[in-house]
Amino acid sequence: MIELQNLSFCYPNQRALLENIDLSVTSGEVVVLCGASGSGKSTLLKILNGLIPELYEGTLEGTGTILENEFLSMDFVSYVKDIGVVFQNPKTQFFTTDVYSELAFSLENYSVPRQQIIERMQELVEALGLEKLLNSSMFALSGGQKQLIAFASACMLEHKLFLLDEPSSNLDDQTIEQLKHSISHLKQQGCTIIIAEHRLHYLTELADRYLIMADGKIIRDYSKETMLQQTADELSTLGLRALTPTDIQVNNEQPNLSNELGLQLHCKDLHFHYRGKKSGVAIPELTLNSQQIIGITGSNGAGKSTLFNLLSGITKPKSGTIWFNHQKMTARQLIRESFMVMQDVNLQLFFETVEKEITAKAADLSLFDTTVELLNLRHLLHRHPQTLSGGEKQRVAIATALLSGKKIIFFDEPTSGLDLKHMDEVSQTIRSLHNQHVLLLIITHDKEFLEKTCQRVLTLEHGQLTNDYFI
Question: What pTM, to 2 d.p., does this model score?
């Protein structure tokens, strides 16, 4: 299936991102690429899917074959018909404005008869449980729902090779189980699947091999059996997350908190729904206090990001009021007090270097060196933000938030695309920021991160609060 020798790549005037890689993958294998953010996983996938060198300039070297095509002499147009790809940022692979058209697009592009398209779509929608999303606008989907649609779109054509870059990013537990079932279905059909992933726990039953990368090289090639024998300390040394799901322990003793201490965000009778939809966010009353780091969980599409938009002033509620420190707030006032680290960090990266990005609106540059060292950004300061990996972009956005001087900071999936080391650093950074009189609210599906970071957890389902507990 894939046989490559001495594979190397570097962008113009930069150090090598991949160096002397030998890669062998047989038909039907499920191979997991893992390792630290920036270790070369996404770059390797871009070479395997043909985007390097088709769209990205740089020096690419190596010999071998991919899908019986001679490496470096493949015809891109004919080659890509045989591979299904899910990018780290699913929005970059969408071509239409609604789910139905998006799923049909690839088959229409290859002139598949209409009836076959309908039959294939019905089969896939049923297999992935997408019935409720089929008639949705792409703009109305949550980040996790977009991830699922990107995976479904990649599966519409019956490919031989699937390349998945962080497919579980932003997915809730239920949707991860759907994804796991879908990957298992592809494996049973004999497809070859290569997955770059940090969240490893859902893949232990599916993976045949684990390739561990560091500094642009494959440093370990483990079978499933060998990988499962690694201790927690050995996995941590390799920068890898746990192979088993995190079980959060609920603290039944509610802490005694004084409403007079810390910053307080309070909302009452908060209602909002998008045009044409009856359901939305409906919060009778909620008080959030800076004495705790607060995590918000719930299914994809439950309304978590919408709630953040309301509390930060980005979206105006249909009805209801919001107070900050007992002062009734307008949307404009909330915006002045808030900073949002968005789920799609590409939407908030504007400058030509990382250094300019994190200092442009910094309130206190005395924290610059501490923040840069804590988030391991020193070697990236002169890079263009859009050339970074997904995890590196996330760290840049968090650095911008830390230097902003705002009193309310919202984090929407801050560990999306982060390895163990940088997840721990983000957790440590947020806990350090908590000591600086800041109200911190975090949307996350990452239970490993949630357990390390938060003291209070709210669960949102169908726009309503269904649980409020302490850990």
Answer: 0.80
